Amino acid sequence: MTHVAGAEFYELLAVESVDGQPAGPEEMVFPADIPPQVTEVLKANRTCSICRTTVEYLGHLIVAGHLKADPAKIDAMVAWPTPSNSKQLWGFLGLTGYYRRFIAHYAHIAAPLTDLLKKNSFLWFPAADTSYANLKKAMTEAPVLRLSDFMRAFYMETDASDFGIGVVLLQDGHPLAFFSKKLGPLRRSASTYHKEPTP
């Protein structure tokens, strides 16, 4: 047991089952100095994850220092019906936009769809259909991102075109996050030097 600022922190020990799965409440082993009331709360609390190899958090899965999108959310994106109005399109883009950090050139892929969100401009056309299919495909092929290690160097690669900017944050050659943004009319007229983001 450790005392910090009047609070008590217990070092918990747990064992894995024979099949390699995380220990269930009945298999958890606690040090003798932990009061029985604490062990009962820990065993009964379903929101507490102890000794898990995978943690679900806000629609993401954290596995061995890597971050990936929750497969259930990806399935929901793939099963999403073709939007017939701007409200349905907002819903689809809201869901995919939450995971945009996994997709290189997200803004470029989604541009025909975001153009449909302008006032009185919802008219589904072939380019929107292609963009919709490409966005679903990109979501199913999203890479697994590495979690940041602040003891290592970060690298940022940038790119700019007449229509958008893109950035990838890297560490040891592995992506940590992607960022992309569609440029407005004023920013499009700027030089490439001014378009590209700087660290």
List the helices and strands and how they pair.
Elements: E1 2-4, E2 7-9, H1 36-44, E3 54-57, E4 60-63, E5 66-69, H2 71-79, H3 86-98, H4 106-115, H5 126-140, E6 145-146, E7 155-160, E8 164-171, E9 174-182, H6 185-188, H7 192-195
Antiparallel strand pairs: 1-2, 3-4, 4-5, 5-6, 7-8, 8-9
Radius of gyration: 23 Å
**H/E series:** EEHEEEHHHHEEEEHH
Summed over residues and divided by their number, the pLDDT gives a mean of 78
Task: Please state roughly what percent of the residues sit in beta strands, choosing from under 5%, 5-15%, 15-25%, 25-35%, 35-45% or over 45%.
Answer: 15-25%
SS elements, strand count:
9
Work out the oligomeric state of the chains in this entry: single chain
How does this structure look, described?
There is one protein chain. It contains seven helices and nine strands, in the order E-E-H-E-E-E-H-H-H-H-E-E-E-E-H-H. The chain is of the alpha+beta class. Helix 2 (71-79) packs antiparallel against helix 5 (126-140) and helix 4 packs antiparallel against helix 5 (126-140). The longest helix has 15 residues, at 126-140. The chain starts with a strand and ends with a helix.
Summarize the structure.
This protein is of the alpha+beta class. It is built from seven helices and nine strands. The strands form three sheets. It has a four-stranded antiparallel sheet with strand order 3-4-5-6.
